[in-house]
Design a protein that fits this description.
The complex is a heterotrimer of chains A (285), B (152) and C (383). Chain A is α/β, with parallel strands linked by helices and 285 residues long. Chain A is 21% helix and 29% strand. Chain A contains eight helices and 15 strands. In chain A, the strands form three sheets. A seven-stranded mixed β-sheet of chain A has the order 10-9-8-7-11-12-15, sandwiched between helices. A six-stranded antiparallel β-sheet of chain A has the order 4-3-6-1-2-5. Chain B has 152 residues and is of the alpha+beta class. Chain B has one domain: Jelly Rolls, CATH 2.60.120. In chain B, 34% of the residues lie in helices and 32% in strands. In chain B, helix 1 crosses helix 2 and helix 3 crosses helix 4. With 383 residues, chain C is α+β, with helices and mostly antiparallel strands. Classes of the chains: A alpha/beta (285), B alpha+beta (152), C alpha+beta (383).
């Protein structure tokens, strides 16, 4: 039942995008949109492991890596959440229903869901870092009995910058997982939590021996999340994080995403924290 | 008082306290609860207690002429209030329950008196509060970083 | 050692003709713009006959030899990655019209290529790029197609440049594998000839159709003298022992600041390096918005853009970019590909405009490690 990816694409097919059509666009925040994409050829969308990414190509503009944020159990569409940070992401966010774009992938190593089976899960997400973790939440909720306690701590700068608000509200209501949403700066009308998500870790009831933690967000936040989790009794080897670097070929051949010995597009983007912590302490590595 | 000791012992704040010190704390403790919207204390009032939150949620707020800003929220297992430790013993913010909240209130005068006679107890309490201040300062720095906006 | 043979200079000319007759395009050294580069050869006359090179840190100069040797020089700014991993490659084109978006891969290269005059360091560099592009989880089919029909005529070095240090890296000066034929050029009183060996059945088959004779003891002795000369002339040395760990333990060494004060971050070292493989992906479109192309071009970790993520570049300082290059080449290459990424060809030393010498940088870090190992720990306190 653990999602498995298709074998890595090789040869020209790893380099040649496949055409997808925009089936729906959802406005998440002022700066982010979620796109549902369907293969133009009518065949199923590629299988993926939560945490994997694709390369999204906009005709005449360029290509960027984007984590997959849809439900791994669905093969009728590929879902991406894009935050406008540059020319390509702006073009993607501006796409309308019916537009055609190119997709390569999925690529990379995702979250360790097999290892997570039967264990307690702590998920710490910051900002758009929730996007690559949402497929994990879908999967866990669909196979709830296969996991122990599941806590999701999600933080954003302001309430307006929270992704998937309607879905979060529904998940909080039904109580299948413990979901805590917190913001750095509350605005009028916000009745939820205020503060950084990492600080909330100490309030969780944690059985370190049976817990696995997944975190994605700004690198600074992830570093502190690992430290806090260590304080809670976890070993860094029980924490997995998702890294972001420049990715161009997505198959470990162009060299851009090197982080010490790792090609993050290949041995990442999800890495075990104990492997990367010493490197995260080196500036400009 | 017999029922308070296990409640107190179950709170993370008491994790590092000896049985003897715990017993002293019980002598200064009382059970409290707040309804949603109820103020625990208000800015400028005498800081005559601190609170070990058992469940619920309390917001630290500051009111401006046009709006109310929430600095942070505190939940189960957290500690509310350190102004009782330092003269002039006045709260700097409003604390308001945002949902029904249960807590153990520890009387400030009682603890200050006992700490003056038992410096070991005072030292243990100060260690706990120093750690808490360090964590809050760290969290505040993270909030200031605006990390979600900054690059990766 | 397989039986050694001798080819006359005339027979070498026949070798080139035979390879051409078999459909190979001949790629080899030739003089252009004051340097010896690799390009397509139409015959022996395109070789740098009678030329040699003088190299040192930041220095490269061609001078005349007092003989008519065909291979009397070392390596120039080009390497064979020009042939197998070209500087610019079109990957695919996209057309957008009323029928939608269509993407078409570019056809794979189909040329048969004979390398004329590859050196020992070059052969190791080719093997290293093979590991990168052919033996990883994803195979680069374009590289694979370019490499498929390759015939290698290696030339054993009879001299070394002041920038050479292949002996330190265990990659030369003598080639022992990776060739179809390996030849040592000898010019002495017994004539201008090539003492050689075949490395593959393909090499033997080509040799069988050429006039040749078994090598006499005098021929072998003359060839051995050339090999010894190359070894003796080796101008640089790099103590490669433990350099992988040394660099990892010294990522914050003050030497990185020092070298950064000289480095121009021009990226020349990465362009001339025969194993550097990094590429940039870029998309080009026509003005009408109807057609677009995807190109893959050589890139350099010395550019600011190389590590760009939204919000800025990860490696903003020259220090961090030089450190990335050197630690990748000599250290993390082991993690990625099981060996060093350096073959000791010395190109990066020669073509650095300010003469930065990686052997010198490694030596400086080794001499004053910022984190002394247990052996260097001063003993203090109790006797």
């Amino acid at each position: 039942m653990t999602p498995t990816a298709e074998p890595p694409a090789t040869g020209p097919s790893a380099f040649l995008p496949r055409s997808f059509r925009v089936a729906a666009v959802h406005r998440e925040t002022a700066e982010t949109r979620t796109l549902e994409l369907q293969p133009v050829d009518g065949r199923p969308a590629p299988a993926f492991v939560p945490g994997q990414f694709t390369m999204v190509y906009v005709f005449g503009v360029g290509e960027v890596p984007m984590s997959i944020t849809g439900d791994p159990a669905r093969d009728d569409r590929l879902v991406h959440t894009v935050r406008v940070v540059g020319a390509v992401s702006r073009a993607i966010a501006g796409l309308r229903r019916g537009a055609e774009i190119g997709i390569r992938g999925p690529f990379g190593r995702g979250w360790p869901l097999t290892e997570a089976l039967g264990r307690d899960l702590i998920i710490v997400a910051g900002g758009v870092g929730l996007a690559p973790l949402r497929p994990v939440i879908y999967h866990v909720r669909a196979h709830r009995a296969a996991f122990g306690r599941v806590s999701v701590l999600y933080g954003a700068r302001t309430p307006d910058e929270l992704l998937y608000r309607r879905e979060l509200a529904r998940w909080r209501r039904d109580g299948a997982i413990d979901l805590q949403v917190t913001v750095d700066r509350a605005s009028a009308g916000w009745t939820g939590l205020v503060g950084v998500p990492t600080l909330r870790l100490r309030q969780l009831t944690i059985d370190p021996a049976r817990t696995l933690a997944l975190t994605c967000g700004p690198e600074v936040m992830m570093r502190y999340a690992v430290r806090e989790l260590e304080h809670c009794g976890l070993d860094a080897a029980q924490v997995h994080l998702s890294m972001e670097r420049n990715m161009q070929c997505a198959v470990g051949l162009c060299g851009h995403c090197q982080f010490g010995p790792d090609f993050l597009c290949r041995s990442g983007p999800v890495l075990r924290a104990d492997r990367v912590l010493p490197r995260l302490a080196i500036r400009e590595l | 008082m017999d029922t308070l000791e296990p409640l107190l012992a179950a709170h993370p704040f008491a994790r590092h306290l000896s049985a003897a010190h715990l017993h002293v704390l019980v002598g200064c403790a009382r059970n409290v609860r707040f309804d949603a919207g109820q103020f625990v204390f208000r800015e400028g009032e005498r800081a005559d207690a601190f609170y070990l939150i058992r469940d619920g949620c309390i917001a630290l707020e500051v009111a401006t002429p046009t709006t109310t800003l929430t600095m942070m929220t505190l939940g189960a297992g957290e500690v509310l209030g350190w102004s009782w430790l330092f003269p002039p013993y006045r709260w700097k913010f409003d604390a308001r329950a945002v949902e029904p909240t249960r807590a153990i209130a520890l009387d400030a005068q009682c603890l200050r008196t006992k700490s003056e006679t038992d410096h070991d107890l005072g030292y243990e309490l100060l260690k706990q509060f120093a750690l808490m201040v360090e964590q809050r300062l760290h969290a505040t720095r993270l909030q200031l970083l605006n990390a979600y906006d900054a690059n990766g | 050692m397989p039986a050694q043979f001798v080819l006359s200079r005339a027979a070498f000319v026949e070798l080139l003709a035979a390879l051409r007759a078999q459909g190979y395009r001949l790629m080899g050294p030739t003089v252009r713009d004051g340097a010896i580069v690799y390009d397509e050869l139409s015959g022996v006359d395109d070789l740098p006959i009678g030329w040699t090179d003088e190299q040192d840190g930041g220095t490269y100069r061609l001078t005349r030899r007092d003989d008519a040797a065909l291979f009397g020089y070392t390596v120039g700014p080009h390497s064979w990655k020009q042939v197998f991993h070209p500087p610019a490659v079109k990957l695919w084109r996209a057309v957008r019209d009323e029928r939608g978006l269509r993407l078409e891969a570019e056809p794979l290269p189909a040329a048969k290529t004979a390398l004329i005059g590859a050196r020992a360091c070059d052969l190791h560099a080719i093997a290293i790029q093979d590991t990168t592009f052919l033996h990883g989880p994803v195979v680069d089919r374009r590289y694979e197609a370019a490499r498929r029909d390759t015939f290698v005529v290696a030339i054993q070095c009879g001299q070394a440049a002041r920038t050479c240090f292949c002996a330190s890296m265990g990659t030369g000066p003598r080639a022992s594998a990776g060739f179809d034929l390996a030849l040592t050029e000898v010019l002495d009183e017994r004539g201008h000839r090539f003492v050689g060996e075949a490395g593959t059945p393909a090499g033997e088959a080509v040799l069988a159709r050429l006039p040749h004779r078994p090598a006499a003891p005098e021929d072998l002795e003359a060839a051995a003298q050339r090999h010894d000369a190359a070894l003796a002339q080796m101008g640089r040395r790099l103590d490669a022992g433990g350099v992988r760990e040394l660099l990892q333990e010294n990522l914050d060494h003050p030497r990185w600041d020092e070298v950064a004060s000289r480095c121009l971050a021009c990226g020349n070292c990465t362009m001339v390096c025969p194993t550097c493989f990094c590429t940039a992906t870029s998309d080009r479109g026509d003005l009408a918005g109807r057609e677009a192309e995807r190109w893959q071009t050589w890139d350099s970790c010395f550019t600011m853009d190389f590590s760009y993520v939204h919000g800025g570049s990860v490696r903003r300082s020259t220090k961090s970019r030089y450190r990335q290059w050197l630690t990748h080449k000599l250290s993390t290459w082991f993690d990625q590909f099981g060996r060093s990424g350096c073959v000791g060809c010395g190109r990066c030393i020669t073509w650095c405009p300010v003469g930065i010498d990686l052997t010198e940088e490694v030596r400086a870090i080794r001499e004053t490690p910022s984190r002394p190992g247990p052996a260097a720990e001063p003993s203090h306190g109790h006797p």
